[in-house]
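On to my pick:
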Amino acid sequence: MDERPSSPRSPFGAIRAIDYTVIFVRDMAAMRRFYEDVLAFPLSRELSPNWIEYGLGNNTLALAKPSRTASDAPTPAGSASLQLAFKVSAAEVDQCADELVRQGVALLSPPTDQPFGHRTLFFRDPDGNLLEVYAEI
């Protein structure tokens, strides 16, 4: 009989969702134009010129200039520090691709049906972060 001792429950087990997603930005003006004008994310609030929030469903996406909470050097140009995946319907993946191209955004991968059951589209924001629009198919 292989019995493992029970470990104490972690307090992090209480986490049920991601509430805020914060992107530390190098170029706030370019990132703001991209998220507001290209992706048309609804501005929720602007706490300062260095902290801007967008409401996306139950999540808040914030653009922030690193300050007293992050003294790390910025991610080098050409390196992604995160990937965000935005879920839409299958038809909307293609519509998003068309809009990105219309807005002059280079696609890293056009709409593609993946063997794992997603239709995906990949591109980058002005700071080089990898963004994905996908649908379950």
Summary: DSSP finds two helices and eight strands in the chain.
